[in-house]
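request received
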Amino acid sequence: MIDYDPHRWWTYFHYLRGSMIKEIVYRVMACVLWSVGVVAVHLHVRPMDIQPTVHTLAGISLSLLLVFRTNSSYDRFWEGRKLWGGIVNETRNLARAAGVFLRGDAALYGALLRWTTAFPYASAAALRGSSADLGPRAAELPPEQVAQVRGAQHVPLAVARRMSELLDEGRRRGYYAEYVQLQLDQNVQLLIDYLGGCERIHKTPMPFAYMLHLRRALVLYCFSLPLALVDVFGWATVPATFVVAYLFFGIEEIGVEIEDPFGNDDNDLPLERICDTIQKNLTALLPADGSAPQVSPTP
Amino acid sequence: MIDYDPHRWWTYFHYLRGSMIKEIVYRVMACVLWSVGVVAVHLHVRPMDIQPTVHTLAGISLSLLLVFRTNSSYDRFWEGRKLWGGIVNETRNLARAAGVFLRGDAALYGALLRWTTAFPYASAAALRGSSADLGPRAAELPPEQVAQVRGAQHVPLAVARRMSELLDEGRRRGYYAEYVQLQLDQNVQLLIDYLGGCERIHKTPMPFAYMLHLRRALVLYCFSLPLALVDVFGWATVPATFVVAYLFFGIEEIGVEIEDPFGNDDNDLPLERICDTIQKNLTALLPADGSAPQVSPTP
Amino acid sequence: MIDYDPHRWWTYFHYLRGSMIKEIVYRVMACVLWSVGVVAVHLHVRPMDIQPTVHTLAGISLSLLLVFRTNSSYDRFWEGRKLWGGIVNETRNLARAAGVFLRGDAALYGALLRWTTAFPYASAAALRGSSADLGPRAAELPPEQVAQVRGAQHVPLAVARRMSELLDEGRRRGYYAEYVQLQLDQNVQLLIDYLGGCERIHKTPMPFAYMLHLRRALVLYCFSLPLALVDVFGWATVPATFVVAYLFFGIEEIGVEIEDPFGNDDNDLPLERICDTIQKNLTALLPADGSAPQVSPTP
Amino acid sequence: MIDYDPHRWWTYFHYLRGSMIKEIVYRVMACVLWSVGVVAVHLHVRPMDIQPTVHTLAGISLSLLLVFRTNSSYDRFWEGRKLWGGIVNETRNLARAAGVFLRGDAALYGALLRWTTAFPYASAAALRGSSADLGPRAAELPPEQVAQVRGAQHVPLAVARRMSELLDEGRRRGYYAEYVQLQLDQNVQLLIDYLGGCERIHKTPMPFAYMLHLRRALVLYCFSLPLALVDVFGWATVPATFVVAYLFFGIEEIGVEIEDPFGNDDNDLPLERICDTIQKNLTALLPADGSAPQVSPTP
Amino acid sequence: MIDYDPHRWWTYFHYLRGSMIKEIVYRVMACVLWSVGVVAVHLHVRPMDIQPTVHTLAGISLSLLLVFRTNSSYDRFWEGRKLWGGIVNETRNLARAAGVFLRGDAALYGALLRWTTAFPYASAAALRGSSADLGPRAAELPPEQVAQVRGAQHVPLAVARRMSELLDEGRRRGYYAEYVQLQLDQNVQLLIDYLGGCERIHKTPMPFAYMLHLRRALVLYCFSLPLALVDVFGWATVPATFVVAYLFFGIEEIGVEIEDPFGNDDNDLPLERICDTIQKNLTALLPADGSAPQVSPTP
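response:
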C-alpha cells in the first residue's frame, strides 16, 4: 500500500507508482492512435463521421456499469480490510482473555502468544501463494512443531489447530473449566472464519460475463468515439479521445486492482504492517522474565 | 465457473463460452434485422423518423433500472458465495474443535469427518436438483446408513441429523459434557442456516413484475431506437442499433445468469471445487492409522 | 407468487397477471388522453409547445428518485424473504436439535414438532390479517389447547409460548439440563425475532412525504411532457407519451407492489408454499410408530 | 406518522399535512419570484440569458448528491424502525422466556412485565426530550421506585437497571441458576443496545459540510436556472422554474424530515403506537388472578 | 463537530467554519483564473473553443465516481459513529450487569467503573495520536497503575486488560462464577472490537489509485471546461466555471473531510462529548457513600 495524506491535494499528481499508468497505457495509446487514423482519413481521404447520439444514449448505461463495478471492487477491498481488522481484534482478545487465566504458567501462555502471532503471517503467506511463513516469533517455538505445521496441507489451519491444542492443555492443567476453554476457542474459530472470508474474496473474481461484457462495451464505445467527435472536433478529436479513454479505462482498472486486495501491488492492503502490529501488540504481553505480568487490583 | 486472470485484458475478447453470446444472439439479431427494415423503408418508401428526445429522457430511467437489476443479481451471486464460504468455515471449525475432544476415539472422529464432508456434496446436489450425492468419502461409511440418508425427504438435513447423532454419541461416551456438545452442534446449525440461505436464493427469482416490466421497456426502447436514429445515421443506424441492443440485452442477461449462481453454467459458482477443497482439508485431519494426531504442546 | 423461468425471455410478454397492467392502466390512459388533447389543440387551435430543457434537467433527479424507491422496495421484499428463510432454518434446527434429546419420548417430541409447524401458519395468517390458522398438523393437537391459542391476543406469540412450555417440560422430565433448554429456546426466540421483522415491514410503508413527493413529481413530469414533445413529434407525441408514462408509472408501481410482500398478490412471497415446505420437512421427522427414529452410529 | 394505503394513488394528492408544503413554500416562492424578475428584466430591460450547458453538466452531480442524501436519510429512518422493532422483539422474548421460569411467582413476574412495558415509554420520552414517562402500567408499580427512576440521570437506563435487579431477585429466590439469569439479562442488554442506536441517530445529523455544500449548490443551481431558460421559455420560465425548485427543494426536505425519525412530526415513526403494542402484548401475559397461566402439555 | 439544526435552512449559508471554503479556495481560484485567461485569449488573440460533447459524455462517469466516493466516505463516517455508539452501549451494559453482582463491594465496583470510563478517553487519544489521556476519573485510581497503563505499548489495550483483571478479581472474591466472569468480559471484548474497527478506518484511506484517478480526472475536466464554454458563454464562462469547480471540488473535499472522522476538525465526530456522556452515565452509578445502590424489588 502507498501511504498518503488525503489532505495534500497536488502532491501525488506526478506519481507513476500506484496510479495505474503502466497498466492502462497500451489500451489508451491504442485508442489514441486509432483516433489519429480516423481524423486523418476523415480530413484527407473521405468523411467518416457519425452523430454522437448513440454515445450519449449508451454512455449512461456504460458509465453506471463501470462505476458500479468499481464500487463492487471497493466493497471487496473494504471487506478484506474488515476481515484483517477482525484478525487483529481476535488475536488481541485471545491474548487478553487467556492472560487472565494463564497468568501462573508463563511457558504455556508464551507458547500460545507465539502461535497466535504466527497465524496472521501464515494467513498472509497462504493468500499470496508464497512459501509458508510463521513470522519472527516462530524461532522461539519448538522446531519440530514448526516444521510439522509448515508441511501441513493448509498451514494457517494447522496453526489454529496448534492454538486449540494449547487451550486444551490449559484446561487439562486445571487453569480453567471446559466452558472457559470453549469461550477462548471461539476466538480461534473467528480467526478461521476471517481467513475463510479472505480466501473467498481471493478466489472469486467478478463473474466472467460481467467483466467481459463491460470490457467489450468499453472497447466498442471508446474506439467508435472518434467517429462521433471528428466532424466538430477536427484534430482536437485526438486529445478528446485520450481524455475519455484515460478516464474510462482507468476506472475499469481501479476495479481490477482492488478486487483482490491481498497481493503485493501498490494498491493492495498492507498485510505485512498489520502482521507486525499484531506481533508488537502481543509481544508486549509476553512475560519477559518467565512470569506473567503482576496484577494488583486495588479497588 | 470460468477461471480467468482479471489482469489479462485482451485475452478473453474472443471467448464465446461464458460471454452470453449464445443467449442474447436472437434478441440482438431480431433488433438488428428490424433496424435494417426501418432504414430501408425510411430511405426508399417513406420517411418514418422521430426525434431522439424520448429516448434520451426514458434512457436514464431504463439504464438505472437495468444496472440496478444487474447489481441486485450480483449481490445474490456474492451472497451465495458467502454462504458457501460459511460452509467451508464451519466444516473446518467443526473438524478442528471436535478433534480436540475426540482425539482418543479415531473411529468416532473419522465417522464425524466423513459425514461432514458429505454435507457440502449433498447440498450442492440438492441445489442443482440432481440425484443425491454424498461425495467420495461416503464409500467409507456404513452402506445402510448411507442408503437411508440418500432416501430421506431432504438429504442434507438427514446428513446434518447424522452429524448431530455422532456428537451426541461423543457425549454419551463421556468425551465431553452436554455444554460442549451444544457448542459443537452450533456449527451444524450454521451449516443448515447457510444451506437454507442458498435454497432461498435458488427458489426466489427477482419479482415477476420487475423482470417483466424491465424486459418490456427494453424491447420498446431498442425496437423504437432505429426510428430515432435513421434520419441522421442513415445505414449507420444498423450498427448503431446493434451496439445499443448488444449492450442493453447483455446487461440484462448478466443479471439473469448470476441471480441463481448454483447451477452448472459458465458463470455459476464452482461448487464442485469448493466441495473438493472441504474434502481435502478434512481428509488431511483423518487419523491415518486409526489413531488421532498426536499432540505434544511444549510450552 | 408467479413461478417463472428467467431464462425464458419472450414467454411472459403477453401476461396480464402479475404485470401491473391493471394497476397502472388508468393513470397511463389519463396521460395518453391528455396528450391527445394537447396535440389537437396545438395543431388546430393555437401552438402550446415548450422546449424539453426542463424535462431533461428534472428527469435525472426524478429517475434517480424513482429507481431508488423501487430498489428500497426490493430491499424490503428481499429482507422479508430472508426473514421467512430464517423461519425455515430455525424450525429445522429446533426439530433436529431437540430430536437428539427427546428421542426417547415420542409423545413430547411429536407435540413439539406439531406446534413448531403451527408457527409459520399462524405467522402468515397474522401478517395477512386473516383468521387464525395453525396448519394441517393442528388437528393432531389437543383441541382445548388449540382453541386457547386461537383466541389469544397475538396468536403466533401464543404458539411460541406453547413451544417454550414443551421445552420446559422436557427439562422437567429430565431429558436435558437448564442449559440445553435455553439453547433450544434460542431457536424459539429467533422465530419471534423474524416474525417481528415481518411485522415491521408490513406496518411501515415508505415515509409519506417520500411517496407523495415522488407521485406529484411524476404527474407534473408526465402531464407536461406532451407540451415538450408536440412541436417536433406531432401526432407521434401520443405514443411517445405512452411509452414514458408506461415506463415511469410502471417503475413506481413495482415499488408499491413489493414493498409489503406478505399479501396474496401475484408479486408477493409464496408464504403458503414456505409453510408447506416446513410442514413436510418436520413431518418427515415425526416418529411414525410412536418411537423416535433409531440411531446407530457405527464409527 | 400518517397512515396511508400505498395502493390508493390519487387519494393523497391534495394533502398539505405531511407533504412538506409548509416547509419548502418560502424557498420555492423566493425562487419563483426571482424568476419573474429575471424574465421581466430580460424581456423589457436588457437580455440576460445564458446557455443551459452548465446546468446540464452540473445537474448530474447535484441530482446524484441530492438523491443519495435522501437515501442516506431513508436508511437512518429504516434503521430507526429496525431498532424499535428490536425493542418490540426483546420485550416479547424477555416476557416469554421469563414466564416459563417465574410461573410460580406472579408478583415477581408481574413486576418484571410492568417494568418491561415502562422501558419503551421511557425511551421514547428520552429521545423526544419530553418529561419522563413510564407508560400506563407504571401506576401499578411501587410509587417510591417509580419516583426514583423518574429522577435518574438517564431514565431508560434506570428502568433497565430495575429489570436486571428483578432478574437477580428471581435467581436469589431460587427459580433459576446464574446461567439462566445471564441469558435473560441478554434481552435487557439488547434493549440498551437498541436505545443506544436510536440516540446515535438522534444526535448525529448528516455531516455539516455535506448539508451546507448541497444547499449552497441547490441555491446556486435553482436561482441561476431562470437565466438559462428565459431565452427559449419566455414567461414559461416561471412555471418551469417552479417545477424544478419544487422537485429539488422537496427532495432535500424529505432528507431533513426523515433523518431523525423519533420526533412528533407527520413523517416520524409512530413511537406511541409501538409502545402501546408492546404494552398490550405484555399485559395479555399478566397473570390476572395472581397466578401465572397454567400449562398442561399433553404430548 | 458543528452543532446545527437541519430544519433551519438559511442560517448557515454564511458559515466559513466547517464549510470547506478554506480547503478548496486555491483549487477553485486556480481554475477561475485559468478560465479568465482562456476567455481573454479566445476573444482577443485567437479562438480556442471546443464543443461540450466530451464534457457531457465524460461528465456522467466523473459525477458517478465523485458522488460514490463521497458516499463511501459517508459510510465510513457513519460506521465510525456506530462503533462509538457501540462503545457507549457496552460501557453501559458492563456497568449495569456488573453492578448487580458487585453491589456488595463498592470499592471493587468503583474501580471497575473508573477504569471503564478511562477506556473511551484512552481510545480517543490513541485515534488522534495525542498523548495518553484517561479522563477525569483517572485521578481517583491508584497513581502507579495509571502510570503503568499510560506507559503501555497500546494504552486502550492496557486499560482493557486492567478491566479484565478486575472482573477476574470479582470472581476470586466469590461474587460470581467463572461463567459470569466470561459473560461480563464479553463486553470488554466488544470494546476492543469497536476500537479495532476505529483503527481500521483511521489507518486505511481510500485506495491510492481511486483517489488519484478521480483527482486527475477532476482537474482535466474542470480546466478544459472553459474551452467548451467560451464560445457561447463569453465572459460568463468565468462564473460558470466557478460554479462547476466549486461544486465538484467541494464534493471531493467532503469525501476527504469525513473519511477519517476521528480528528479534531469541524466535520469530525464529537469524541469528547461522547466520552463525557459515558463518564456521566457511569458516574451516576458510582456508590456515593462507599455502598452500592440499595435495591428492594417489591414484586
